[in-house]
Each structure stands twice: as structure tokens, then as C-alpha cells.
Amino acid sequence: MNNDIERVLYSTEEINAAENRLAKQINADYADKKPLVVSVLTGAAPFSVDMFKKMTCYAQLDFIDVSSYYGGTESTGTIKLIHDLKADLEGQDVLIMEDIVDTGRTLRYLVDLLGERGANSVKVCTLLDKPEGRKVEIEADYVGFVVPNEFLVGYGLDYQGYYRNLPYVGILKPSVYSK
Questions:
Q1: Cα→Cα distances 28→41, 57, 75, 173, Å
Q2: DSSP 162
Q3: Contacts of 80 (CB under 8 A, 6+ apart)
Q4: Is the predicted pLDDT of residue 133 greater than 60, yes or no?
Q5: CA 132, 138, 144 angle in degrees (round to 5)?
Q6: Mean pLDDT for the chain?
Q7: Active site residue 102
Q8: pLDDT digits (tens, 9 = 90+) for 82-113
Q9: In Å, how far are 57, 75, 87, 121, 168 from 118, measured between CA atoms?
């Protein structure tokens, strides 16, 4: 897999440092609250679990799965809810954990959906933010890194289900996905 990477964008150490920075801010912001952390499957799972372990406030964890990529390299623009939350959101302070905000369509869908379900507040923490890819106006509240408009894999991000287990975030060689 490493041979398919054009270059490493963020090392394991850099990711850990960003998570520590984000966790410090989240812990301060949620010190007197009991947030429901909503991890967006499958890509955000590694980031969500690592962040959850660094949270010092009372918190619950749930998972939601939505997709607009379906294994490709670009969003189809159609959001499909694949796996719903178990938790009741009425009155909850929700913190969405996302791997990357690209077009913003998925995130806009989730923020609206969770708000409609009665959440007290909905905030977003993302490891990666790709503003150049934005098609819908939305911003994350907590951002690890602002990234270039490249096809990224690793640390949860995939291409056709692979590369999620890389311990870093890298740029996938175009020759891999243009076959």
C-alpha cells in the first residue's frame, strides 16, 4: 500500500498533535456538558475513537453511516443514510466526528438531520477540511488540518475500501485511481 502513496501529508505524530490540540479545546468547551459524540462511519472511526479517548468530559458515543461516494473518487451528490443512530437526540449536545469535510453535502445533511431530531446543539469536529472542494456552505467548529484539493487516503480515508489502515494521511497516486 505504501507504494501507492505519492507523499505523506500528515504523519502519525502530526495527527496525534492535532488531536491533542482539538481535544484540549473540546474538553474546555464541553466541560459542563455531556455530549453525544456521533462518529460518521466508516472513515471517521479511527479519528473518532482516538478523540473519544482524549475527551475528559462525560460523553457517549454513537455511530451513523452515510455515503455519497460509493467507492469512487468524487461525491455523487446523493446522500444515502445506511446506518442510523441508536441514541435519542432530544435535548442532546451533539458533536459530529468526521474524517474530512470536502463538498460539505454529507455534513450539511447530517447537521440538518440531527437538528431536526431535537438536538440542543450540533457541532462538528473534523480531522481534515478541504475548502477547495466545497459545494455547500458549511464549516466545521474544530479542524485538525486544512488540506489541498488532492485525493487523500489513510487514517480512515479510503479508496474502494482500502488504505484506511495506513497510520498516516497521504496523497494517493493518480495512477492508482485513474486505471
A1: 26, 9, 34, 39
A2: B
A3: 66, 67, 68
A4: yes
A5: 70
A6: 94
A7: yes
A8: 999 999 999 999 999 999 999 999 999 999 99
A9: 22, 28, 12, 9, 36
Q: What are phi and psi of 13, to 5 degrees?
A: -65, -40
> Pick the catalytic residue: 99, 102, 129, 158?
102
At 69, the pLDDT band (50, 70, 90 cuts) reads low
Distance CA 161, CA 1 (A): 12
pLDDT of residue 16: 98
126 is written with which cell numbers? 473534523
Give the three-class secondary structure for 172: strand
Calculate ∠ Cα 53-55-59, nearest 5°: 95
pLDDT of residue 127: 98
**CA dist., res. 110 & res. 119, Å (int):** 12
Residue 71 has pLDDT above 70, yes or no: no
Residues 8-42: b if buried by 16+ CB within 10 A, e if exposed: bbbeeeebeebbeebbeebeebbeeeebbbbbbbb
